[in-house]
Specification:
Length: 242
């Protein structure tokens, strides 16, 4: 019952919440300033995550991420209470403010979903982030077999301003897309196969999971890039693109 109540409370802040396609939405206005987001959010990484009023896209509050260097010092928050989904696919939307993206040579993630791959003996993570000179990238990684696959774009992530990110993860069709301020970044649309893999025990095939969660925030996979500061606001998870 508590989970259903949460969705209703967080939904009333948006006019679009009358849309029955919306599975979850929040503008973080009901969260406590100076604290990490509460239920249904879960935090991973040793980075700092707090609700603050220094920046917001709507209302007065957003969630502020401050990361250190390397994977363990990342900061992501996620939900899993709406998963699994009947069609094993969803659309996501959020507004982000990135003070300064990770420098060249640092691979980073800002969106991630994961789960066990059906009829296989491994699990996988499907991600959007970036790497070369702050350019956006699709990324696929596995646990149980070796992979770490990529698909790069020439589109850089915006800095020092609010921008909208929308994405689509389809676990049935092994398909993923990302839009930046309403424009589809076609170079990082992936279906079943990307550009290559660091390790390739899966024949470069991106086998998507039965999606169990969605995590948002920031994590660097290498050290030497310095700390990151990122804000996220107005998160929507839905069955259709909004």
């Amino acid at each position: 019952m508590a989970r259903g109540i949460w969705v209703i409370i967080t939904c009333v802040v948006f006019a679009s919440c009358t849309d029955t396609n919306i599975l979850f939405t929040t503008d973080f206005e009901d969260q406590h300033i100076g604290e990490s987001p509460g239920f249904p959010w879960t935090k991973i990484g040793r980075g700092i995550v707090v609700i603050d009023t220094t920046k917001s896209y709507s209302g007065n509050q957003s969630v502020h991420f401050t990361t250190g260097e390397g994977y363990e010092q990342g900061a992501l928050i996620g939900i899993d209470h709406i998963f699994p989904l009947p069609k094993n696919s969803y659309y996501g939307s959020m507004y982000m403010y990135v003070q300064e993206a990770s420098p060249d040579g640092i691979h980073w993630t800002m969106i991630q979903s994961s789960g066990k791959v059906p009829n296989q003996n491994f699990s996988s993570e499907i991600r959007y982030g970036g790497q070369h000179n702050k350019k956006l990238m699709a990324n696929y990684d596995t646990k149980g077999v070796k992979s770490d696959c990529w698909q790069h774009s020439e589109e850089k992530i915006p800095e020092k301003k609010w921008f909208r990110v929308q994405w689509f993860f389809d676990g049935t069709q092994d398909h993923m897309k990302l839009w930046l301020d309403g424009t589809l970044i076609e170079a990082i649309t992936v279906k079943k196969e990307g550009a290559g893999c660091v390790s390739d025990e899966i024949a470069n095939q991106w086998k998507f999971p039965l999606i169990e969660n969605v995590f948002l925030g920031w994590v660097d996979y290498q050290t030497g890039g310095g700390p990151r500061e990122v804000w996220i606001d107005d998160v929507i998870i839905s069955t259709k693109k909004l």
